[in-house]
Amino acid sequence: MSRLTATYLIETPGDPHAAAEALAGEQSSGTFIKIPGETAELKERFAARVESLEPLEDDAGPSLPGAKGVDGPCRRARVRISWSLDNFGFNIPALLATLQGNLYELSQFSGLKLDDFDLPVEYAERFPGPAFGAEGSKRLVGVEPERPMIGTIIKPSVGLTPGATAALVRELAEADIDFIKDDELMVATANSPFEDRVDRVMEVVREHAERTGRKIMVAFNLSGELDEMHRRYDHILAAGGTCAMICVNAIGWPAAREICRRGELAIHAHRAGWGMLTRHPLLGVNFPAFQKIWRLAGVDQLHVNGLANKFWEPDDSVVRSIRSCLEPTLGWKPLLPVVSSGQWGGQAFDTYARTGSTDLLYLAGGGIMAHPAGPGGGVRAIRQAWEAAVRGLDLEAAAREYPEFRQSVETFGKPTA
Amino acid sequence: MSRLTATYLIETPGDPHAAAEALAGEQSSGTFIKIPGETAELKERFAARVESLEPLEDDAGPSLPGAKGVDGPCRRARVRISWSLDNFGFNIPALLATLQGNLYELSQFSGLKLDDFDLPVEYAERFPGPAFGAEGSKRLVGVEPERPMIGTIIKPSVGLTPGATAALVRELAEADIDFIKDDELMVATANSPFEDRVDRVMEVVREHAERTGRKIMVAFNLSGELDEMHRRYDHILAAGGTCAMICVNAIGWPAAREICRRGELAIHAHRAGWGMLTRHPLLGVNFPAFQKIWRLAGVDQLHVNGLANKFWEPDDSVVRSIRSCLEPTLGWKPLLPVVSSGQWGGQAFDTYARTGSTDLLYLAGGGIMAHPAGPGGGVRAIRQAWEAAVRGLDLEAAAREYPEFRQSVETFGKPTA
So what's the ipTM on this one? Predict the structure, then answer.
């Protein structure tokens, strides 16, 4: 029987080994009083195990309030804990309550973060992973392997009518974009019922496909209650759509799984709320664990922020996220990392240099809409930047060679390479 | 049209007013480039508003990494932001992506926590709230208004067979307990299939009810995928059960709503994972907001930790949580706060003094099982403690008057009053 193994970053005012044992006890068969039936066999079979503990150098803190016995700097370590599949079988909510449950409440810790985990091999058969993933998503739009998929987000996020949204989609289609998405705040507003928006937008997408042979992917945000989400999924399908968007933190794992298992649309997963789970270095979850949870549900595309973004996140963290989406796990298809936030062609060079991948969905807003040559110029500029990056050019050389990209360097500013 | 109003605690290296405006922009119709169709009417209707800003005294930090422009202590404030119902209607995942979405990523903030929110009055008609709530849960077991419901958790958490679980339930039933629950880690293990456990346990509960006229409430943890949860719900109902348990953070809002809206079983909500959402004082969510999200889904009972608990949380925070469960909201039934973690009768005095309520589910483990007079003595001791607290006695006076409670003071230690 194989085991689930998880890695945590811990910080404790006490002995890290004792704290790790407390974690293993709290998250499995641990109990502080002797119970009839609590046999040695039961413990052997169901108790979580501390597999390893590696002290970290940067002792400090306490990072969080409420740890007992704080007296000077706290000690930090990386620990691996394992559980038998016997504890939860193939029940993911039970697995989540095990991996990221009461352990954050333990007063032995002044800091605790789930860094990554490895699923038992038995999961490969039970959970098929993404139906489309990176490669399948690109293929649906006819995007060549050697370049990323290029997309944008409908803005203003909230408030456009279906007609105004469709007009914007027409403009973007004429600019030869690959992908368009709703904002994470936008499902259905008082002036944009979901079905009307899908109908108006897909009319434009279908017309464009008939003319060009290429069907743009539009991620309609169908997040809602279960029955609503299924109805909206049906509506997108009937209108000839290829993609639906869900806010994974807002809908939760079982609902995401329900939607993904239908398998007819690529599922674009937005991580709205992710900051509260990860922004503190010693609380919550790191992205390698997070992406695995949602790949297990079957999402195809997952947001990872972008290099030189407008948010708080440093580039190293974004690079780690992109890599973890593309890493093989249980034979599942890699996820398509969705790169966004303050992106224009300028970040293509570092992004490619640091990830070596064109299996990305590269989202730009202003970088497309505010290009001096219009949205068409904006899309061309991003394609040029990626072509140049893959050819091994740097930003300056690319700007010399490609006119639209040169315009975007002049407009959007400083090189990041 | 009424508005959704949320209160955030913020910390910023810059101007708090500017940071609050950035939050409002990011979470509604904000955009950094002018778009055709972005009219003044659209902004007036859909833009979030900063309603008020109250500077806080305790400037310090930065609490979180990644804020731009940190140079000395950061400024803290409490801000109120409002949105029109037009933005999301009655779609709760969209509301969650609005209240607790990308805002945590903003580099304007070095700290940000959702403290509380007020739902538009229109929600009262659309969402019925808890079907049973505090009073209905107590009534199902026949617990008198003037005392809390008294319960315990099956331990060891994971690993007991259905037969061993049923034997423990029999012992607890004979001790005249009101409520028994599965651990949050326990749904179905290799040696305890869910249905077998329900059958064995409910046989004991039904026999006991026939003999005594009182049906103990057992919260079976049915967390899982949607179809599994529905099947398990049916199974509990068919066996004569009155309650099901869900881990709300692990299953998410739409799945919780699906289960709650069936309305035939009281829903016991475990908050496993809550620590990662709240333990940092300036990141995540505070309990008053959290309980409202789940009351909106329709849960009846929600964990709040306990006074003098074994976890990290200070008593003031626990008291605030209990009060917020009992607070009237939109005419909905109050939630039954589930008090647990290191509880025995000793905390009854402070808990009653600080909340004035007996509408609680008071869970004890060792306080019941390890009582010198056995589990029956343990349950009696807790009832005695609450009777004494309601009568206005203090712990010492109660220990003089009630023999089983005196034994538990001798066994479980220091007064907390």
Answer: 0.96
